[in-house]
Automatic annotation (TrEMBL), chain A:
The protein's name in its UniProt record: Aspartyl/glutamyl-tRNA(Asn/Gln) amidotransferase subunit B
Keyword Transmembrane helix: no
Principal EC category: ligase
Swiss-Prot/TrEMBL catalytic activity: L-aspartyl-tRNA(Asn) + L-glutamine + ATP + H2O = L-asparaginyl-tRNA(Asn) + L-glutamate + ADP + phosphate + 2 H(+); L-glutamyl-tRNA(Gln) + L-glutamine + ATP + H2O = L-glutaminyl-tRNA(Gln) + L-glutamate + ADP + phosphate + H(+)
Gene3D superfamilies given in the database record: 1.10.10.410
Organism: Streptomyces himastatinicus ATCC 53653
Protein family (similarity comment): Belongs to the GatB/GatE family. GatB subfamily.
Gene from which this protein is expressed: gatB
UniProtKB/TrEMBL annotation, chain B:
Entries under HAMAP family matching the protein: GatA
Gene Ontology molecular function terms on file: ATP binding; glutaminyl-tRNA synthase (glutamine-hydrolyzing) activity; transferase activity
Catalyses which reaction(s): L-glutamyl-tRNA(Gln) + L-glutamine + ATP + H2O = L-glutaminyl-tRNA(Gln) + L-glutamate + ADP + phosphate + H(+)
GO cellular component terms given for this protein: glutamyl-tRNA(Gln) amidotransferase complex
Domain of life: Bacteria
Function recorded in the entry: Allows the formation of correctly charged Gln-tRNA(Gln) through the transamidation of misacylated Glu-tRNA(Gln) in organisms which lack glutaminyl-tRNA synthetase. The reaction takes place in the presence of glutamine and ATP through an activated gamma-phospho-Glu-tRNA(Gln).
Residue stretches making up the Amidase domain: 25-471
Entry's family note: Belongs to the amidase family. GatA subfamily.
Stored Pfam families: Amidase
Gene giving rise to this polypeptide: gatA
Species assigned in the record: Streptomyces himastatinicus ATCC 53653
Assembly information from the UniProt record: Heterotrimer of A, B and C subunits.
Protein name: Glutamyl-tRNA(Gln) amidotransferase subunit A
Catalytic residues identified in the record: 80 (charge relay system), 155 (charge relay system), 179 (acyl-ester intermediate)
């Protein structure tokens, strides 16, 4: 294999225009498989979630999962697609041991949803419209594990193990029309599209769309054409790019690689390529000398799917607010910048913050905790924010305690720490950790405020750096509290409130 | 015991229900008959002696406890080896499934058990139901009880031969292009292909999904109707299953009549290739129908002459996909797996060794017909012809209540005669294929022996989809009149084995 010297991204874009096609597979979160009653839950023993139908035993027949169809229609509607009045499943015929029937039940020229679009927002605020060609229903294959080879690939393996638990899990494949006009932003558009699609799928509640779990998988098809050319160039198909960052990197790498090959007077081979997380490169997979002949034909074991218009409209009525629209609304409500909103989105904090606000917290405080202390903790533990053992209601309670003056920032932090450590609700933690003194401190704080207000000139001196002047205020507070306060603590409080280091 | 094996299913069921006979006696008599004659006939691939007796005992115990019995309780049945049977081998007549023990029952199998029918065993068939003579079975041919050197029809030759040799009073077949009706015709028995979707295909190993249909085989029209009612009816496990009440076929079979009915004679089913004696018996049957009070109307179905061609594109196309699963990975034969070969090589070797010539021929035909660039010309055109044939039927049924024709152009031919001539073999299904393409209901029943060879001739009756009861009403009337004319059922003229 010859190693191609990449062309710099800027040079590539100076000469060529990238054209992309993105194919995303989403595993639906239905309880049962697409064509049988087997469970779809993850982590079960190999082949324990199988039956004659998903094992393709002789004589077995498929029955369509109605929830799968419903999910497909919802996705189609959310992607602004037309929903077919009548469509069929088709058999995609090819041999592979992890495919029990040696054909995949899919859809071919009659997809359930077609002709739509998804608007995605780029970092500079530009809205880019990605046109959707189609969204169709199909079933997943089983899983092969190649044993004995060095790389886990089939090459060099002594034998392979097959697990059919995944075989028959419903998939929706969403295919874009060729994405043109993105120019240098093409990789960003690819990433933004997949990210937006993931948000959409999650908002619809049809899948958790966790890319790291393979619930959402992306193929990046890319070609280049000289600026001004009408005809598309030959494309490469980079398969199974399974994180947002990888989608962007894969597109970028392929732009640079294609440009290098074309710049040397070479030709791009139509082939599938593997993406490598380690260095962001792609390598050649299977060459498609001629288009693979899948011998599609309508699946005779299933009857056509003909969703009534009433049902489609009913489903349209159940669609949630679309994520981008919702984000714009929330951004305005929260009064934050586009950039800040992007960070909230990237952190997976939108729903958490919203729920915290719903539980009574104000927007600024809710965002401060989730994007600050809690985001840091999640990051340290390599966990999703939502996976932290603290609920929006608990965070809202901490905010309330701060608001009523029962907790200050430092103590609030300790309270959250306690909740995360499993010590119970915020009130429980406050009581058990003896953070309760802060409620006395609340009263103390009030006395300090009074003393500061009544001695503005002294307070100004202290602010100006004359820390020794604090003694006069301490005296005033001690007098006001009839000596029941801890003088050292009072001094600390005064300095703290005046923003001066002790 | 000879008398017992000649009883009809209706008679056996009545005698078991009344206590005159026990299910065990009935089952033992049929097992003894199998023991005595099946070495010569070879109708069965697997006899489930123990299972059958156990089930018979269970029926007798059920009766002793005073529980309600199924409608065909204690009646033995021969099941085509295309239906899965939990714990009992199912080969589909193919070497590729030799030794496979299914972990589940087909819906038909389940319904038979629920009806207290005694399943004697699994019958021989052309491999994957592809053939018209049962010569394509990987386990050797079956003889026609009328002349053991001749074919018993196919693909369900084992089922038809078991009936004609009195090894079972009932059998189950499947009909993709005539595999119930043509064997019935050449063995002097009754066979019905119900409306497509009437009988669940769940657990029926697929040959051509859009054409396959299970159905009853028997020696009388009433017995076929009784079995029809047991196996038909909606099945949520088969998406193409009809979700509507089963037509009242038993009632129709008990009240045979053609008075006032309009019967169409399809004029395209005649001419070259039709044996003189077959046409003679057919014409006599038409005359009989007229005498019984039917109005005879000549009907033209111009698209029928393209039916065979369309069938031999659609059926192979679907089979090329349906049979892809036999890849040595999960069940059945595994050839050449010596540890040095790839999965792909093992699959190829297994399919080379496990499939017979006719199956391979059809897989290749179908693979070709579906390939890109040829799909429209072959599979696409065939589907258009299918639509035309359906329209021909619709037009015909605007004028008549049923259509009649010979079931098959000739009587049983000698084993080996057409084995190397696929086209000649395919012609055996000339008259039966249109009903499969359109999804209609159709029956074959005996209408005499051809004068030139003394072999049975079948009369085919075709009814519109969902009007299966018409077959039984007409069939019962013809059967009663002919039995009266002959003085006995036709099968009594069959040689004793």
């Amino acid at each position: 294999m010859t190693v191609t010297e990449l062309v710099s991204y800027e040079d590539a874009l100076a000469t060529y225009e990238p054209v992309m096609g993105l194919e995303v597979h989403v595993e639906l979160g239905t309880k049962t498989k697409m064509f049988c009653g087997c469970s779809t839950s993850l982590g079960a023993d190999a082949n324990s979630q199988t039956c004659p139908t998903c094992l393709g035993l002789p004589g077995s027949l498929p029955v369509v999962n109605a929830t799968g169809v419903e999910s497909a229609i919802k996705i189609g509607l959310a992607l602004n697609c037309e929903i077919a009045e009548w469509c069929r499943f088709a058999r995609k015929n090819y041999f592979y041991p992890d495919m029990p029937k040696n054909f995949q039940t899919s859809q071919y020229d009659e997809p359930i949803a077609f002709n739509g679009y998804l608007d995605v927002q780029l970092e500079d605020g530009e809205i880019f419209r990605v046109e959707i060609e189609r969204a169709h229903m199909e079933e997943d294959t089983g899983k092969s594990t190649h044993v004995g080879g060095a790389t886990g690939r089939i090459h060099g393996a002594s034998h392979s193990l097959l697990d059919y638990n995944r075989a028959g899990i419903p998939l929706i494949e969403i295919v874009t029309k060729p994405i043109v006009g993105a120019g240098e932003k093409a990789p960003e558009v690819a990433r933004a599209y997949v990210a937006e699609l993931r948000e959409l799928i999650k908002a619809l509640g049809v899948s958790e769309a966790r890319m790291e779990m393979g619930q959402m998988r992306c193929d990046v098809n890319l070609s280049l054409r000289p600026h001004g050319a009408d005809k598309f160039g030959t494309r490469s198909e980079t398969k199974n790019v399974n994180s947002l960052r990888s989608v962007e990197r894969a597109a970028r790498f392929e732009i640079q690689r294609h440009a290098a090959v074309l710049g040397d007077g070479g030709t791009i081979i139509q082939e599938t390529r593997h993406f490598h997380e380690e260095d962001g490169s792609t390598t050649s997979g299977r060459v498609k000398e001629e288009a693979e002949d899948y011998r599609y034909f309508p699946e005779p074991d299933l009857v056509p799917v003909a969703p009534s218009r009433e049902w489609v409209e009913e489903l349209r009525g159940t669609l949630p607010e679309l994520p981008r629209v919702r984000r714009t609304r929330l951004r305005e409500e929260w009064g934050i910048s586009q950039h800040e909103m992007q960070s909230v989105l990237n952190a997976g904090a939108i729903d958490l913050i919203t729920a915290t606000i719903d539980a009574g917290a104000d927007a600024g405080a809710a965002r401060k905790w989730w994007m600050g202390e809690l985001a840091r903790r999640a990051n340290e533990e390599g966990a999703e924010l939502a996976a932290l053992p603290i609920t929006p209601v608990q965070v809202a309670r901490v905010c309330a305690l701060v608001d009523e003056g029962s907790l200050n920032d430092k103590l609030a932090r300790q309270t959250i720490e306690g909740v995360l450590a499993g010590e119970g609700d915020p009130d429980q933690v406050v009581a058990d950790r003896g953070l309760k003194v802060v409620s006395d401190e609340g009263a103390l704080g009030a006395a300090v405020d009074e003393a500061i207000a009544g001695n503005a000139a002294i307070a100004d001196k202290i602010r100006g750096g004359k820390v020794a002047a604090a003694g006069a205020l301490v005296g005033a507070v001690m007098k006001a509290t009839r000596g029941q306060a801890d003088a050292a603590r009072v001094r600390e409080l005064i300095l703290e409130k005046l923003g001066v280091e002790g | 015991m000879t008398d017992l094996i000649r009883l009809t299913a209706a008679e056996i069921a009545a005698k078991v229900a009344s206590g005159e006979l026990t299910a065990v006696e009935v089952t033992e008599a049929h097992l003894a008959r199998i023991e005595a004659v099946d070495e010569k006939v070879h109708a069965f691939l697997h006899v489930d002696r123990e299972g059958a007796l156990a089930q018979a005992r269970a029926v007798d115990e059920k009766r002793a406890r005073g529980e309600e019995l199924g409608p065909l309780a204690g009646v033995p049945l021969a099941l085509k080896d295309i239906f899965t049977t939990k714990g009992i081998p199912t080969t589909v007549g193919s070497k590729i499934l030799e030794g496979w023990i299914p972990p589940y029952d087909a819906t038909v199998t389940q319904r038979l058990r629920d009806a207290d029918v005694i399943v004697l065993g699994k019958t021989n068939m052309d491999e994957f139901a592809m053939g018209s003579s049962t010569e394509n079975s990987a386990y050797g041919p079956t003889g026609n009880p009328w002349d053991l050197t001749r074919i018993p029809g196919g693909s369900g030759g084992g089922s038809s031969a078991s009936l004609a040799s009195f090894q079972a009073p009932l059998a189950i077949g499947t009909d993709t292009g005539g595999s119930i009706r043509q064997p019935a015709a050449v063995t002097g028995t009754v066979g019905v292909k119900p409306t497509y979707g009437a009988v669940s295909r769940y657990g029926m190993v697929a040959f051509s999904s859009s054409l396959d249909q299970g159905g009853p085989c028997a020696r009388t029209v009433l017995d076929a109707a009784l079995l029809h009612e047991v196996i038909a009816g909606h099945d949520p496990l088969d998406s193409t299953s009809i979700d509507a009440p089963v037509p009242a076929v038993v009632e129709a079979a008990r009240n045979g009549s053609v008075r006032g009915m309009r019967v169409g004679v399809v004029k395209e089913f005649a001419g070259e290739g039709y044996q003189a004696g077959v046409m003679q018996r057919f014409e006599e049957s038409v005359e009989l129908l007229r005498e019984l009070g039917a109005e005879i109307v000549e009907i033209s179905c111009p698209s029928f002459d393209k039916a065979l061609a369309a069938y031999y594109l659609i059926a192979p196309s679907e089979c090329s996909s349906n049979l892809a699963r036999f890849d040595a990975m999960r069940y059945g034969l595994r050839a050449g797996d010596d540890g040095s070969k790839s999965a792909e090589e093992v699959t190829a070797l297994t399919r080379a060794e496990g499939f017979g010539a006719e199956v391979k021929r059809r897989i290749m035909l179908g693979t070709y017909a579906l390939s890109s660039g040829y799909y429209d010309a072959y599979y696409g055109s065939a589907q258009k012809v299918r639509t035309l044939i359906t329209r021909d039927f619709e037009k015909a049924f605007e004028q008549v209540d049923v259509l009649v024709s010979p079931t098959t152009p000739t009587t049983a031919f000698p084993i080996g005669e057409r084995a190397d001539d696929p086209m000649a073999m395919y012609l055996a299904d000339l008259c039966t294929i249109p009903a499969n393409l359109a999804g209609n209901a159709a029956m074959s029943l005996p209408c005499g022996l051809a004068p030139e060879d003394g072999l049975p001739v079948g009369l085919q009756i075709i009814a519109p989809a969902m009007a299966d009861e018409r077959l039984y009403r007409v069939g019962a009337a013809v059967e009663a009149a002919l039995t009266e004319r002959w003085g006995h059922p036709l099968l009594e003229e069959a040689p004793s084995l």
